[in-house]
Amino acid sequence: MLRRTAPRVCCLWILLSSVLIWRVQCASAQSCHEVKTAFQLRQVGSLRWVPETATTDVDLLICKHQGPTCCTRKMEESYYAAAQRDTLQNILSYSFELKYLILGHASSFQDTFHSLLSFTLNHTYSLFDSTYGTISQDAKPLVSTLFSDLDLYLRGDANISVEHSVHSFYDKLFPLVYQHLVNPGLGSNVSTWSSEGSECLRATRHDINPFGPHPQELAQGLSRALVAGRALSRALAVGSEVLNATESVGMARQCGRALVRMLFCPHCRGLTLIRPCGGLCLNVMRGCLAGLAELDGPWRSYVALLEGLSRALSGGYEVELALLRIRERINDAILTAQLNGPHLSAVVGKVCGSLTELVSSTQVSPTSRSLTPSVNPTIELLTSVSSSSPTALPNKLKSLPIRCFRLYIVTSLSLPLKPSKNDKPRSLKKISKEFMGYIQRYKSFFSTLPEMLCEGEVVMDENTCWSGEDVVESYTGHVVGNGLKAQKHNPEIKIRSVDPILVNVKEKLEHFNQEMWGELGLGTDGREDVETSSGDAAEGSGECDDEDGCQGSGRSEGETGEFVRPLHHGSKTTVSLR
């Protein structure tokens, strides 16, 4: 009996042992389920490339190590593309904030400039409609051309000169003023004046100088007031171009491999939750972004330029006042020509000859003669009053009828510069101060970008991290600095050159900085800090100003923002943008 059952028992034990050994072998095989889950969540690639269990006979190029792995060559290729994609997206997310800041404020500045120009254009139109109706229709196109040039100038058009545009306006205005206001009886009909005569008046306006000092004063005043706005528009456009160029730069092959080792090689061992060490991340990111870090110096100078220009625009209302004075300057110029009418006619007769030969009494109808305005003695007296010094006004005003006195007061008052407290749109001063506060945060953008990227990849409170080769308690490699030269000692990545696109961007930004600092009369490349002058100017730039409802801003009328450049011996030189 025992002999019969013994073979059966032996067979049963053999079968049970085989099953047990098979289960132990299956349990010992490493599952790649977590790796597949992470592969899917991070949208790395197709799940068919991920094996179910770890294998050892895989020929990997990046994530090489002894032992079983959950990675394949196809997975490495997918990891390579995903690492570059995710890193570039993170870089774009940070640069987008800066780009949005620049483009948004560039649009705000242009909208404000356009509003100011539109208001002062209509303000100047009203001068001709109300005071010089006989030349209003012909003068308005000239005024429109002047303001169009100013708009283009503020947008940074290199072909526009404020002084040339102003003098061109007065050149074309002179024939109208001479024919209709200085000699209205002779120029009652424009067709009676020869084109040669009008061209002579235009060509000789500068030499004859019928408008006195007012054209030159207007040209110089506008040039001083608008230079900061024009420079800021140009600078914001260049900043946008720089960011667009940096966004188009790809990553070097060495960078992609280093990113895979840092971000995905732990997955090959099933370590999907381990984070890279801080030192490893800094070395990899500083190596990958070595070309961008080369922009740090020119970018700091560029931001200092933006700060200075914003400070100049936020220091007062010089732009608004200069534009509002256009109407006043034009009116003063026309009045000067009228006051000097006899002398002016004599000079024109000598220079251009007799312009009245073509005019005959039969060519001018009685109706047109009746429409010709005559020079009113009261207007002449008002003209002399308006051109006199303030101390001389009371005596001359005493001789005026009360209705003329009221007319003088109404026409002499300027329109209100600022709206009421109940209606406060964003002024140029407000936008400038806001932009200056924001842009300061991005002065070190290109040098701190690696740290910003690593903040999202590294967990600082964990006891262990990924060193690029294994799980360690701390990273023992040498952590390099920013820039191309520092990468010679980078243990994680070897970068020997910078993308040609970034080289071109750096040169362009350096050239622009030198050009702008030179145009503004600072004579520096911007490496020295730009700061506000102390004393009253600093008080005027505080948080509380007139627009916030304060009674005073600590800044006198006509005072402007200024650049202050410290000298080596400790003193300061102030360069005004006026």
Q: If you had to describe this structure to a student in words, what would you say it looks like?
A:
This protein has 578 residues and is mainly α. It is 60% helix and 2% strand. The protein has 22 helices and four strands. It has helices at 2-28, 33-41, 73-130, 136-154, 162-182, 195-208, 214-247, 253-263, 265-268, 278-288, 290-293, 296-314, 318-339, 341-352, 366-371, 377-386, 393-398, 402-412, 428-439, 445-455, 500-519, 536-540, and strands at residues 465-466, 471-472, 562-566, 572-576. The strands form two sheets. The chain has a two-stranded antiparallel sheet. The chain has a two-stranded antiparallel ribbon with strand order 3-4. Strand 3 and strand 4 (572-576) form a beta hairpin. Helix 3 packs antiparallel against helix 7 and helix 3 packs across helix 8. Mean pLDDT is 75; it is low at 1-28, 187-191, 358-424 and 526-578. Cell surface proteoglycan. Residues 1-29 form the signal peptide. It is a lipid-anchor; GPI-anchor. It is found in: Cell membrane. Belongs to the glypican family.
Got a strand count? 4
Quaternary structure: single chain
Please work out how many helical segments DSSP would assign.
22
Q: What is the percent of helical residues?
A: 55-70%
Percent of residues in beta strands?
Answer: under 5%
Low-confidence runs = 1-28, 187-191, 358-424, 526-578
Describe the strand arrangement of the main beta sheet, using strand numbers.
1-2
Structural class: mainly alpha
Rounded mean pLDDT is 75
Shape: rod-shaped
The rounded distance between the terminal residues' Cα atoms is 121 Å
Radius of gyration equals 38 Å
Largest sheet: 2 strands, antiparallel
SSE string, helices as H and strands as E: HHHHHHHHHHHHHHHHHHHHEEHHEE
Subcellular location: Cell membrane
Main location: membrane
Family: Belongs to the glypican family.
Protein name: Glypican 5b
